[in-house]
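> example.struct
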């Protein structure tokens, strides 16, 4: 396959991550996260997010989300989320099935929910006929590549806490957010009052594996059993942990994410002079949304891999990755110019 703008999941594995896996593949060690590599990776998380955090490794993003949300809820609870949220749109009802909770989507502007709209759903507490709201789950960055500021996240956390509820972040691209904001991840998670974080890596150079981070120890009390029941406990856990150990060393995660963000900005700048291409959303991380004519879309998809976001408007999504190169973008843009 030629370079793909379809998804950052289409990219390969960063060389530093492959090297870390090879280093971990020596000799024997105990299983299920009792090994030194896993403990070293956990220490890396604590260095970046705070000594009080509890960290657990899982296989994938959906597993991270459903297991984290299960730890925060009972089956009679409700989970609030943006209507465009990954847990609402792209996880095949796994959150509902695994938690037993009702998902309540909230209208989102540019992928983000506001205090007023969240507050409207904080009702019916103690009323036995209503599912009891317990969690707000947001994505950082959002599914549209946009960003919450630390202040916005803190305000959402304070609102949820005022009703004895939690704030969860789906951070499948959390390093892209950090690189774009030029802020440490701690500043808009732990310091902003977030309770739980699904910490992603596979969209940014990892082979397999995500992490669930809890910022309040009491929430994590039963997570060992929740993870096991969710089939997210890996016997050879060191191979996931080794990746995160390398990922969080020397700001590798930010270097990889910063590059993909920069490539999206470069793609945006190269597309702007093309009148048939209308950039449709703010480019804040590693994704460019644009509306293009249907015939151009059809022809372009014969040459390049990408996805249509909105069939009605022919809005397309072009993702950049840690290994996207300027020449990949130049070829892509030149093909667009030749077709128009």
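> example.seq
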């Amino acid at each position: 396959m030629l370079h793909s703008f379809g998804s950052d999941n289409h990219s390969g594995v960063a060389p530093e991550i492959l090297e870390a896996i090879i280093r971990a593949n020596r000799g024997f060690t105990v299983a299920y996260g009792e090994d030194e590599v896993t403990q070293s990776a956990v220490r890396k998380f604590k260095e970046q997010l705070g000594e009080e955090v509890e960290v657990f490794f899982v296989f994938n993003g959906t597993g991270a989300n459903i297991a984290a949300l299960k730890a925060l809820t009972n089956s009679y609870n409700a989970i609030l989320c943006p209507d465009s949220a990954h847990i609402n749109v792209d996880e095949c009802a796994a959150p509902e099935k695994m938690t037993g909770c009702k998902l309540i989507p909230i209208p989102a502007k540019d992928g983000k929910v506001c205090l007023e709209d969240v507050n409207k759903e904080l009702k019916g507490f103690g009323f036995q006929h209503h599912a009891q709201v317990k969690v707000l789950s947001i994505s950082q960055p959002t599914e549209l590549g946009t960003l919450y500021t630390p202040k916005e996240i803190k305000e959402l956390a304070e609102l949820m806490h005022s009703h004895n509820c939690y704030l969860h972040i789906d951070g499948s691209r959390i390093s892209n957010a950090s690189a774009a904001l030029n802020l440490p991840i701690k500043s808009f998670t732990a310091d902003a009052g977030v309770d739980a974080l699904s910490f992603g890596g596979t969209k940014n150079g990892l082979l397999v594996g995500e992490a669930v981070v809890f910022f309040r120890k009491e929430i994590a009390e039963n997570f060992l059993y929740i993870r096991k029941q969710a089939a997210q406990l890996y016997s050879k856990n060191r191979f996931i942990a080794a990746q995160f150990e390398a990922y969080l060393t020397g700001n590798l995660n930010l270097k990889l994410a910063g590059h993909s963000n920069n490539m999206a900005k470069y793609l945006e700048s190269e597309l702007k002079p093309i009148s048939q291409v209308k950039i449709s959303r703010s480019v804040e991380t590693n994704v460019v949304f644009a509306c293009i004519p249907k015939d151009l879309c059809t022809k372009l998809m014969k040459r390049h891999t990408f996805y249509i976001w909105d069939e009605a408007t022919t809005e397309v999504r072009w993702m950049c990755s840690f290994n996207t190169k300027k020449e990949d973008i130049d070829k892509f843009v030149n093909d667009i110019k030749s077709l128009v």
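> remarks
The chain is about 40% helix and 15% strand.
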